[in-house]
Amino acid sequence: MRLFGASPLDQAGELRRLVEEQRKEKKAFTKLRTIAVLSGKGGVGKSNLSLALSCALADRDKRVVLLDADLGMANIDILSGVTSRYNLAHLIDGSRKLYEVLVPVEKNVRILPGGVGLKTLADLDDEALSEFINLLGELEESTDILILDTGAGIHKGVLSFAVAADTSLLVTTPEPTSIRDAYGVLKALTTSWGSLGAELVFVVNMARSEAEGRDVAGRIQRAAGRFLGVSVPYFGCVLRDRHVEQAVRLRNSFFRLYPACYAAEGVRHLVDGLLGESKGTSESSRGLKAFFFRLTRGSFAGK
Fold first, then answer.
1. For a disulfide at 204, which of 57, 194, 237, 244, Cβ 3.0-4.6 Å?
2. The whole model's pTM is what?
3. How many structural domains are present in the chain?
C-alpha cells in the first residue's frame, strides 16, 4: 500500500478502499444472535408477539428468521398467512435444501418450521451435527437475528432453548395463573438447570395499563429475588388491544395491519430494549454453531 507520495486523488481512492474492506470485515465477524421467546403457560400471546417482534426488527434493518420451535402447537404459519410444506427434518435427512424449507413472509422476515426436526437434532452425533450446521451456513450469512418461538411450560424441550439462546424473553400476562407459571419457569431454570441462561428478561403482555404492567413486574421481581436470589430485568409491557385479535382472524401480524395501535407501540419499545441490551452480549458466544451445540449437547442431552 502506498499513500505517501501518491496524488491526492490516489490517496482518496485508497482510503475509500480501506474503509470498505474494514466495513466488510466488521460485518463478516458480526455473528447471528438468537432470541428465545418462552412462557410458563399457553394463551399469553407468545406466538403473536414473536411474529410482531420479527416485523419490528425488520423495520430496523435486521434480517430475521423466525424458527417455529413449538413442538406441540406450531402455528406461526397460520398467524402470518403463509403455508409451510417442509421443516428442519427434511433439511436434516437431505431431502430438501435450506431455500426450500425457509418460508418468506415479507422483506427481511422468513419462517423456518421446526417440527419433528428439532427432536431429531438431539439424536445426531458430533459429526452429523457439524454437517447439519454447515448446511445452515447460508442462514448464518444472510440472517442477523434468529427468533425462536418455543412451546409453553417448564419441560426440558422448552427450557433448553432458554439456556442455549443468547437472550431469552419470558412472556407473562397479569392473570394470576400466568404470573405463577412465569415464576415457575424462573424457578425451574435456577433450581434444575442452575442458570437463567446467558441473558433472560421478561415482558408483561395484555396489560390493561402501564401501571398494571409495572405492578406485575414488581411482584415477579420481588419473588425471584427473595426466593431464588436472581434479578430479572423488566423490559416493559404490551397493552391489551382489540387489534391483535382482529389481525389473528385476518392471518397477519397486528404490527403490520395496525402499526399505530397500542400493542404495536409496545413492541417497538420492546425492540428498543432488546437491541440496546445486545450491545453487552459477547460476540464469542454468539452464532448459529454455538447455539445448536449448546442446545443439543448442553440441554437436550444433558439434563
1. 237
2. 0.83
3. 1
